[in-house]
Amino acid sequence: MEYRQLGRTGIKVSAIGIGGEGFENKGYEDCEAMIDCAVKDGINFIDLYNSNPKVRSNVGKVLSKYPRSSIVIQGHLGSTWDNGQYRRTRDIHEVVSAYEDFLTRMQLDYVDVGMIHYVDDQNDFDSIFNGEIIRYAKELKARGVVKSLGISTHNTDIAFRAMATGIIDVILFSINAAYDMLPATEDVYKLFEESTFKNRTYEGIDPKRDKLYQTCQNAGVALTVMKGYAAGVLLSDKQSPFEKALTPVQCLHYCLTRPAVASVMVGVSTTDQIHAATAYVTACAKEKDYSEVLANAPRSSFSGHCMYCGHCAPCSKKIDIASVNKYLDLAFIQEEVPETLKNHYDLLEHHASECIECGLCMKNCPFGVEIIHKMKQAAALFSK
Fold this sequence. Notes:
Elements: E1 3-5, E2 12-14, E3 16-18, H1 28-40, E4 45-48, H2 53-63, E5 72-77, E6 79-82, E7 85-88, H3 92-105, E8 111-116, H4 122-129, H5 132-142, E9 146-153, H6 156-164, E10 170-174, H7 194-197, H8 207-219, E11 222-226, H9 248-256, E12 261-266, H10 271-278, H11 285-288, H12 291-295, H13 321-332, H14 339-346, H15 360-364, H16 371-382
């Protein structure tokens, strides 16, 4: 398994995590089989939004078999159980009661990431961050009950606002190759409507989403990913907006090559689905490569935008072109190049200044990126 730093929290998480939806409608034995399988495959990161008391109790019982420090828990504030159903709540009494229930049933004395649940609306954000919920979240952190604070959202504008508060360490955000083409929205259901993608011309990553990922990277705010498979849509030739299915490994590689992404919380309901996700760790570069599907998609125009796919390799001077481009894009949104970013660039074995303009990379790039020009930009910028 690959492990990554969860932003500035200092916590190490598996690049593949699991979401909680797959535990619904399952007994203890099935929950145990799934978690045991995940742990055996090296997964140490679990996101649990579920308010279902049976799910919480089952998962908590399984996790109690393992040392607490070996599992990283992302647990949601604002998810309650009401008359046999999940309900999102902003009532502070319900928020407190539901979180205490979460801690009890999960057998936890602390949560690694206290995740403020499902905030897509601007007024909802204002109410939370100017009211009792954020005060309660801060209190939990001060008491050590949560080690870091996060927010889950599908809205780019909300993610920017959360990051700007300075108190949010982790953002659980919906990321995949299809959603990345869409502008910010307060209506999460638009992401699942066929009409959202029909007859759309794809022109690369939405600039605001691209900037979000880069800004999070610079700020040390980790992104954890939900909807990495677009609820399964991207795994189907018929349903995918690209009209060709991606594999789970390709979907995961797309997410994990975005700046600031620490882990993808995969929705799984069987051990086979867990193995399909963790196959990412041993997959070869060809198996991970998503570029052909995106570049050849109907109505697609990704031209000129680096997707960090690495398809430009090999470089005759062994420059890691994808990393250079990533650092260059991160630098472009800053008034000055941060010292930490320059250090990352300096640590590369080979630098943009070594480019001999042979053009081999540009022949390989499926997105028509002006790589030689970008190498010149990087050489000039990082030599200052």
